[in-house]
Amino acid sequence: MERLRTTRWIATVTSIWIQCSCGSSYTFSVYSSELKSTQAYDQSTLDTVSVFKDIGANAGVLSGLLYSSVTLGNPRLGGPWVVHVAGAVQCFLGYFLMWASVVGLIYRPPVPLMCLFMFLAAHSQTFFNTANVVTGIHNFPDYGGTIVGIMKGFLGLSGAILIQVYDTVCKGKPSTYILMLALLPTFVSLVLMFCVRIYKATTGDDKKHLNGFSAVALIIAGYLMVMIILENIFTLPLWARISTLILLLLLLVSPLGIAIKAQKEDLRRLPQMDSIHSNLLTENAEQITSPKFSTAEDPIENNVLLSGESQVQATSDENMQLDEENLNLLQAMRTVNFWLLFIAMICGMGSGLATINNMSQIGESLSYTTVEINSLVSLWSIWNFLGRFGAGYVSDYLLHTRGLARPLLMAITLATMTVGHIVIASGFPGNLYIGSILVGICYGSQWSLMPTITSDIYGVGHMGTIFNTIAIASPVGSYIFSVRLIGYIYDKEASGEDDTCYGTRCFMLSFLIMASVALFGFLVAVALFFRTKRFYQLVVLRRLVHYPN
User: Residue limits of the Major facilitator superfamily (MFS) profile domain (predicted)?
Assistant: First the structure.
């Protein structure tokens, strides 16, 4: 039993390491030119392959179904490791076959087959992510926002981490990088997958150690931000790149020390907890056998009875709310809250993803230098991380200390995203930096808030399936805003032989429209907040051991 109480910390650390290795879909730009040249693609064909990357990285319904099937049944027949195996197989096959095509090991595949390779490679990310995120919520149910923020945050940083490895190990060799993507995430997940397990036991001091993981994440994010800026300004020699990579790896190992310390404290706390539990049982037994409990004439007991009667209506209301808990995907899709959350994510995730997909073109139209554009694109991963990590942490804080439902923070971030889109649309010098920070942070926050709200409303049993279905809103929204809105207006405003566009007119109308969309998402999130406000008060807060009732 002691082992069950402590190894969830090791499970968290191994999940963090897997998350750091599996964000390869964020590094498509590293090898896209190599893929285009070796396969003789035009830009439209390359964009088609990229679309299948986005679909694969976000369509995680199968990973959720697999996770539910291997964790809700007999645990001896499976566990999260099964989901990791499925992800590892897809990761290896997708990237290995892609690498074999690029280097000529196999004959150049037709475009649909290459799209399948890309889909498999990106789809593996949903399996790794689902196994780590949902297991984390199982192990730390009182701090779902914090643990989701940590897992999603490290996934957001993984792109920058993998690029640091690429710059040190095989810079200038994108084909070798594709092979690395086939081997590294597969190896890491297969080696560590048996450590990622569900542990039901809880302790009383989780928050302190989770904050330690959060502090490490912030330090790594700051370190990567400095490295990104330096590499975009200076050309670092090989010895400097090796040194910086070693320091990065040491930072990534540091969560293990936090986990070991947490385990030791849990072991010291166990005898005290057992003693307290024994005393409570003795006191309860004495109270039950006391004559005082056999009569209703005692005034204190009368008050208790009256209080119990006054709680009947509240209990009835709670039971009505509980009907929405632990629903499967099809049942959840019949509820209004599911579609409110889905629409809000189309507005937030869709417009945010469309922004980063067009960041380079926006910079070019506003006459930013290549160094400035590269910095904007590279730093997006940092803002994305801050949103993912910060929203999870803040939502837990507001829920535990103020009793505020998480959809309120979602509404606030969507309102802030509205401002970010307007800032970008203005086109004033320097505003692209400010706007990208606002949109990047708010975009990242949706990836922490949406899964956590899903687990709050529908329970953790089928969470993986439900939140991965809602995540499809991201590529759907991205297609609508990137292709049907931004691309259409840009082509309409473009002039010259190369169909390029310069000036604020290229993107102003598009971002004003996306600002309106984000504002609509804000209103939808507000509606979700008022619909779930009572549910959070009656049900969610009562689940929390550490909520000050």
Answer: 336-549
The Cα–Cα gap between 424 and 249 comes to 36
For residue 272, the tally of other CB atoms under 10 A from its CB is 10
**Last residue within a domain, chosen from 170, 186, 202:** 202
Q: Is the dihedral of CA 260, 263, 267, 269 positive or negative?
A: positive
Q: Which two tokens stand for residue 112?
A: 């649909």
Neighbours of 220 (CB within 10 A): 22
Q: Which of 187, 202, 217 lies at the terminal end of a domain, its last residue?
A: 202
Instruction: Give the list of residues 6+ apart from residue 534 with CB closer than 8 angstroms, or none.
Output: 317, 321
Q: Are residues 197 and 335 in the same domain?
A: no
Of the chain, the end-to-end C-alpha distance in Å amounts to 29
C-alpha to C-alpha distance for 522 and 109, rounded to whole angstroms: 44
Note down the domain range covering 520.
327-548
- Maximum CA extent, the chain: 96
Q: Are 220 and 252 in contact (CB under 8 A)?
A: yes
**Residue 163: C-alpha distances to residues 3, 205, 304, 536 (Å):** 37, 36, 63, 41
Paired residues of 495 in beta bridges: 500
Give the DSSP H or E segment for 110: none
The DSSP string of 500-536 is: B--SGGGTHHHHHHHHHHHHHHHHHHHHHHHHHHHHI
What letter represents residue 81's amino acid? W
How many independent structural domains does the chain possess?
2
Sign of the four-CA dihedral 246, 372, 40, 125: positive
Query: Which CATH number is 143's domain given?
Result: 1.20.1250.20
- Residue 280, CA distances (Å) to 283, 287, 547 in order: 5, 11, 20
**138 falls within a domain:** yes
Q: Is residue 478 part of a domain?
A: yes
- Residue 356 tokens, joined: 């980063």
Say if 66 falls within a structural domain. yes
Extended beta strands in 263-410, E state: none
**C-alpha to C-alpha distances, 546 to 192, 262, 409, 542, nearest whole angstrom:** 31, 18, 21, 9
Strand partners, 201: none
Residues 388 and 395: beta-carbon distance below 8 Å: no
Classify residue 29: in a domain, yes or no.
yes
pTM of the model: 0.83
